[in-house]
Amino acid sequence: MRVAITGASGFLGGALARAYHDNGNHVVALVRKTSNISLLKELGVEVIYGELSDETAFNTLLKNADLGIHCAALTTDIGPWEQFVAVNINGTKNFFEASLKQGCSKVVYISSVVVYGNGRHHRGTDEEAPYETIIVDNYTRSKIIADRMAFEYHQKRNLPVTVVRPGYIWGPGDRAIMPLLIEAIKSNKLAVVDGGTNIMHLSHIDNVVQGIMLAAKSEKSTGRAYNITDGSKVTTFRFLTDLINIIGVEYKIRSFPYVPVYVVAYFLELYARLRRYKFKPPITRYTVRLSKYDQFFDISRAIYELGYKPQVNYKEGMAGLTGSVRSLYYGQK
């Protein structure tokens, strides 16, 4: 089977490339010329260079592809709207258009549970929940538009697409969030909101890969959305405490009340916009809301329709972080 993947130089895309390659498939990846493709070279993956605005590159990527998986996305929550439009919206549209043109048999779009919003508690939210309407960040806004677009392409143009909505994808190899957390510990800046008692939407990388592969091979998944998380109820405070224990340092996690922190985040974002985002705020309303509200999502649809069963539990996942977390903290290679 020929499997086309965007964002294959990233955390999730790279893990998918390895998994499909190891299962005997021919993997072709779309990456930027500036991307680190050492893993892809090691695997012998076919690499196509191009931007998400490059329609020719998309058509080359998806030519004769049996399966197309769109992982590429701008995942920061702060920045000019135009960037999110170019990457998360127009890039997704270009992927869908090329998939139709090349007759791709199956398409999987990687969305996010963020489409349900993070400004309220989620205590078992399922895929039938409406999109968030009170949006404070461009990432959420762009992912909602792209998520909705996937269903429009299916309903109006018969695109055989499945939408997968993971939470915070964690595990060895995370180069986005984990380094920031470790740096915050090193610089004594790690803190929580209201005691860090909220439940996180943890989605271990191995579980997400499993969920995507199951969705990709399921006929009944076409035109459907699936929440893919660990199904765990781990609080922010516990997660951070366990990271600190892995490192083996003494660290007291400070806690601040939600409202004052949210107000500070608002003004930091305002200053960032005035500086045309040359200043990156240390906290944003998006991250503050994530730290306040429970983020527990129902995964029963994936369990019953796809046969999904998280293969890595929280304890195992945390144990698997030991080497990478200590390397990040102590600067080991």
Structure in words:
- This protein has 333 residues and is α/β, with parallel strands linked by helices.
- The chain has a domain at 2-175 and 201-230 and 295-311: 3-Layer(aba) Sandwich (Rossmann fold).
- It has helices at residues 11-22, 38-43, 55-62, 81-101, 138-157, 178-186, 205-217, 236-247, 258-274, 285-292, 300-306, 314-319, 322-330, and strands at 2-6, 26-31, 46-49, 67-70, 106-110, 122-125, 161-166, 168-170, 191-193, 202-204, 225-228, 254-256, 295-297.
- The strands form four sheets. It has a seven-stranded parallel sheet with strand order 3-2-1-4-5-7-11, sandwiched between helices.
- Helix 4 (81-101) packs parallel to helix 5 (138-157).
Notable traits:
333 residues; Rossmann fold; two-stranded parallel ribbon
